[in-house]
Amino acid sequence: MKTTIVVKQGQLALLKKKDEYIDVLTAGEHKFFDFGHKLSVDIFPLNGGALESEKAEFLRQYYPQWVTEYGFDIVLSDEEIGLLYENGSLKEILAPGTRRLYWRYSDRSLEIVSIDELEVSSILMKKLQHPKLRNQVIKGSEGVLTVDIPAWHAGVIRINGETQALLPPGLKGYWRYQHKVDVEVVDMRLQTLDVSGQEILTKDKVTLRINLSANWRYSDVLLAYQQLASPLEFLYKELQFALREAVGTRTLDELLENKSLIDSLVSEKISEVTEGYGIEVASLGVKDIVLPGEMKTILAQVVEAEKSAQANVIRRREETSATRSLLNTAKVMENNPVALRLKELETVERIAERIDKISVYGGLDQVLNGLVQIKGAQA
Predict the structure, then answer these.
(1) Are 286 and 311 in the same domain?
(2) Which ranges does the record mark as transmembrane (predicted)?
(3) The pTM of the whole model exceeds 0.70
(4) Beta bridge pairs of residue 5
């Protein structure tokens, strides 16, 4: 009895007899004598995915000639990375040690990259970025560490925990396989670091809350990251220590009399401790000194007392000056009747300013003589 097997275009079939593969059937019509209906086929789409790993290993072991003739076999070593292309487009990045078996179909190709080449080529980076513009992700792209370093920045790359080099601005990529790769992007411009809310006890046991701000930059990024695990954290801690030393060894009066004293002391200390660490502090200053509530009241009372004493001193000085002026005036009028007459007229003028109506009898001379008599009687 004859059996007809039809394999459509885009398909491939494995002919079986008693569960053993005996032949490969390509597209077309195939006729066989099948006594006892012992023949069967496994049909595969040529544009399908990879074969199951168990079936692929079985074919590699027992039918290597079929794999060579009809298959697209991928066997990567532990030192190789595979780039799988279909019709000229990158479809997948294969990790080292990957084993895949496809049926040969269309224009499928494989590019092998050595794992020793840690940096991803610029051409491959463009291919990885292009699908992202269409919100697509190439399978296996998580095996690439992508770093986009903006202008005025630099990248510090660590391989297996060891700082290696300084990367310029631009798009970079690194293979993650068999390496722990980390890139930290740092700002090369002048930056501001705030040390806020520091409660410090002065030498005379007064608690102050101080806010300090520092402007800093990297003078040598590689040196900083080779010497320090976290340069920013190191600088913050040293600013704290320097501020506590400057405030804790001085009294409140010393700090209030010279507000720039803290700035100069902290700046001098920071310059010493950061030398040789690739960090430069351009400037720093105390923004706020906050006193406790009760201390504010006491200081306000002290200032009020000082100002009151100053006001009394000024008042006494002015009174003394006025008395001296009156004495000089009296000496002048004693020897000069005209000056005395003018003073009398000035006195009359001041009195007249406070009186709505004045009636004069006997002339102005009698009024003046009366005033003189009144003053004489009072004396």
Answers:
(1) no
(2) none
(3) no
(4) 30
